[in-house]
Design brief:
This protein has 2 domains: 1-14 and 26-63 and 142-222, 3-Layer(aba) Sandwich (Rossmann fold), CATH 3.40.50.300; 78-141, no CATH class. Helix content is 28%, strand content 26%. It contains 6 helices and 9 strands, in the order βββαββαααβαβαββ. The protein starts with a strand and ends in a 19-residue tail after the last strand.
């Protein structure tokens, strides 16, 4: 497995965000993370990305930090630079020589080739999100942490995102994906992690949208 958490907890001061989370993600699996606002979904991904430290429990991530692709709510790009310059800089930042062919391929995949040399300060929210996704995919990481990646995307771009996630799963990557649209995204998931009331539990995609949740011991709320 690539990611495993045991009794994972996070507190800000004395206030718990979540506690005693148990979950794992294997190679070639998509774990969809569901929960209301404030349930700790984004905090969990930031911990997995190494941007926050957990307060309790054990966390195992079986890859180096450079093999993690994180897409958060912020685009992590320089607005005065073009899409091309941002991707080239991102390559250098991680110790890679910029590969023009790879950058061009990524820009085409996310339909940004026509604006490759325009300052990203003028990009729409959807274009920035596509560039953020392109940045994450550029280095071919093995673990992807996607925090509401479809935000700002039109239906065509969402379809492209779903296709990309299928490809990542088929190539053996692990994807942890925060979603506010379970009815749309659950069909791509292998497992679901529910966060609710500072607790969490693993479940099957069939449990979402009214289907009964499994009663096996390892899927009961903790």
């Amino acid at each position: 497995m690539l990611v495993e958490a045991r009794s994972l907890g996070k507190f800000f001061g004395v206030k718990p965000v979540f506690r005693k989370l148990d979950f794992h993600v294997d190679q070639g699996q998509v774990l969809l993370v569901l929960g209301e606002n404030g349930s700790g979904k984004s905090t969990l991904l930031r911990i997995l990305a190494g941007l926050l430290q957990p307060s309790a429990g054990r966390l195992y991530v079986g890859v180096e930090s450079g093999e993690i692709g994180y897409v958060g709510h912020q685009p992590y790009v320089y607005p005065g630079w073009s899409a091309w310059q941002n991707l080239r800089f991102w390559s250098r930042l991680h110790g890679y020589s910029p590969d023009s062919r790879r950058i061009e391929e990524i820009l085409i995949r996310f339909e940004l080739e026509r604006v490759r040399h325009e300052p990203v300060a003028f990009f729409s929210r959807g274009m920035l999100q596509r560039l953020n996704l392109a940045r994450a995919l550029l280095l071919d990481p093995r673990v992807y942490l996607l925090d509401e990646p479809s935000t700002g995307l039109d239906s065509r771009s969402r379809d492209a995102l779903h296709g990309q996630i299928r490809e990542l799963r088929d190539s053996g990557c692990a994807v942890l994906w925060v979603s506010h649209y379970p009815e749309r995204d659950v069909p791509l998931a292998d497992r679901v992690l529910h966060l609710e009331g500072q607790l969490g539990w693993m479940d099957s995609p069939a449990s979402v949208n009214g289907a009964p949740r499994s009663a096996s011991p390892d899927t009961e709320p903790r």
